[in-house]
TrEMBL record:
SMART domains: Carb_anhydrase. This is Carbonic anhydrase. It catalyses: hydrogencarbonate + H(+) = CO2 + H2O. The gene is CA3. The keyword Metal-binding applies. One of its GO terms (molecular function) is carbonate dehydratase activity. Its EC number is 4.2.1.1. It comes from Stylophora pistillata (Smooth cauliflower coral). The keyword Lyase applies. Its cofactor is Zn(2+).
Length: 258
């Protein structure tokens, strides 16, 4: 099979052929249905401590654009539903070709124009790859932020300004060392949905503690247009790089808010 993608001939409906777990019982994304979630007063805020990076790349890997520091950058995530410390690995985006689609998770069936994933791995493992393969839903902790069109996002501007430099698949640039990743995050990481799920792209491993924030981040229309100028490995606009929602089966979605 041609490498996986989001086109008619290699999109989500085909992924099960190489990754049978695609039809598993803990797949992501899902539709977050407010009438079916359960408030959990034990869910505390999360703490993300992101340290400045000396050498980080921003790259087009053919199916997303991704910020990736060199391994061992000392940034970490704790708290919320997490029992141990998680190390930061990378962040990347999913978006649509217009403002009515683009996010992977949905809220009561509503899609946002884009979704930002901050990926972290369980520090009791020797590496990210081991964490993915560690079995069970505690290998990775992924923070999901919906993006909506509004004011320019100054914290994301250094990243969206680099997009024209990684327009084509397989290209990358070095990110200026004064890039402040912490500034992207809201001051307090409260009000989130959390559930056990999977990677939303092959290998679709069911190793993720998902933490999806209720409050969207804003980006300007110009910043959204920058994403829509990115080209995928088939030479087409990358927009539409989102997987449709998967069945919840017998999982519970908990919220840190009432
Ligand atoms: O890291 C990925 N692949 C490369 C890989 C390397 C080593 C072992 C397995 C996989 N994928 C991936 C990681 C995290 C997330 C997603 C995809 B996402 O669902 O898009 O948002 C969260
Ligand atoms: Zn993602």
């Amino acid at each position: 099979m041609a490498p996986w993608g989001y086109e008619k001939d290699n999109g989500p409906a085909h992924w099960h052929k190489d990754c049978p777990i695609a039809n598993g019982k803990n797949q992501s994304p899902i539709d977050l249905i407010n009438g079916e979630v359960k408030y959990d007063s034990g869910l505390k805020p999360l703490t993300a401590k992101y340290v400045p990076f000396s050498d980080a790349k921003f790259l087009n890997n053919g199916h997303s654009v991704q910020f990736q520091p060199s391994a061992g950058n000392g940034s970490e995530l704790t708290g919320g539903p997490l029992a141990v410390k998680y190390n930061f690995e990378q962040f990347h985006f999913h978006w649509g070709n217009n403002d009515t689609e683009g996010s992977e998770h949905r809220v009561d069936g509503k899609m946002y124009p884009a979704e930002l994933h901050f990926v972290h791995w369980n520090s009791t493992n020797p590496s990210f790859k081991d964490a993915v393969g560690s079995g069970g839903p505690n290998g990775l902790a992924v923070l999901g932020f919906f993006l909506k069109v509004g004011a320019e996002n100054a914290a994301l501007k250094p990243i969206t300004d680099l997009i024209p430099k990684v327009k084509d698949a397989g290209t990358s640039v070095t990110v200026p060392s004064n890039f402040d990743m912490q500034a992207i995050l809201p001051a307090t990481l409260t009000d989130y949905y959390t559930y056990d799920g999977s990677l939303t792209t092959p290998p679709l491993a069911e190793c993720v503690k998902w933490i999806v924030f209720k409050q969207p981040l804003e980006v300007s229309a110009a910043q959204m247009e920058a994403f829509r100028s990115v080209i995928n490995r088939d030479g087409k606009p990358m927009g539409g790089n989102y997987r449709p929602p998967c069945p919840l089966h017998d999982r519970a979605v908990k919220t840190s808010f009432k």
